[in-house]
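A.,

Following up on our hallway conversation. Structure tokens first:
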């Protein structure tokens, strides 16, 4: 990637064109955005614009951003996203930019990485800011030990609960095949296991068999 050093900036500044905004905006590795000197048409006249550093704002979510104009349209672009797009390769086309320490104001390149939504959630768990990260036990009282914890879609899953749930589902299937009696989980009414599905549809959801299978 070619770096350029425009005029009218501080000595020693080296900036790089932002992908998709070449010739219009460039950015430094520390997140300052330079608006290139150029002329734009306004009201039939060519007016000089640019040649200045853009002011950095902070949105309600806590992310620093700048306002840029591309093809006559104003856009809000977060600094961490601009830095990642400019300086960090993304061969797998991952959708999100992660703050590795989860500090939204820390947009240093070494603190940024491309990733998935799940990886972003795992960062929050690892850094102790996920709303569930401080819980030591699951809702059924099983401790979240390393041996009893699985990470799925960015959330902790209790392995004991998962195994017990699997066993209960298998028991229900066996009971249905054997024609055993079982209780409806919604009302507690006992009946033949194979009738529970139909009972639930009719008694609790007001559906007949055809409607329930749509």
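Then the amino acids I'd put at each of the 214 positions:
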């Amino acid at each position: 990637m070619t770096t350029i050093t425009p005029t009218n900036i501080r000595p020693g500044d080296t900036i790089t064109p932002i992908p998709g905004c070449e010739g219009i905006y460039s950015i430094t590795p520390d997140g300052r955005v330079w608006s290139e000197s150029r002329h734009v048409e306004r009201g039939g006249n060519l007016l000089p614009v640019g040649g200045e550093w853009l002011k950095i704002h902070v949105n309600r979510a806590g992310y620093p951003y700048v306002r840029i104009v591309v093809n006559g349209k104003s856009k809000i672009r977060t600094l961490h996203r601009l830095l990642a797009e400019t300086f960090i390769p993304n061969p797998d086309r991952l959708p999100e930019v992660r703050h590795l320490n989860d500090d939204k104001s820390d947009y240093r390149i070494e603190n940024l990485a491309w990733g998935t939504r799940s990886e972003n959630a795992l960062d929050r768990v690892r850094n102790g800011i996920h709303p569930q990260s401080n819980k030591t036990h699951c809702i059924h009282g099983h401790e979240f030990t390393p041996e009893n914890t699985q990470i799925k879609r960015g959330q902790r899953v209790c392995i004991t609960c998962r195994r017990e749930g699997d066993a209960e589902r298998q028991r229900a299937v066996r009971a249905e095949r054997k024609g055993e009696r079982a209780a409806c989980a919604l009302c507690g009414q006992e009946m033949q296991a194979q009738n529970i599905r139909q009972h639930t549809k009719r008694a609790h959801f007001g559906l007949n068999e055809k409607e329930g299978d749509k």
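Residues 67 and 73 are 10 Å apart (CA to CA). Curious whether your intuition agrees with the design.

B.
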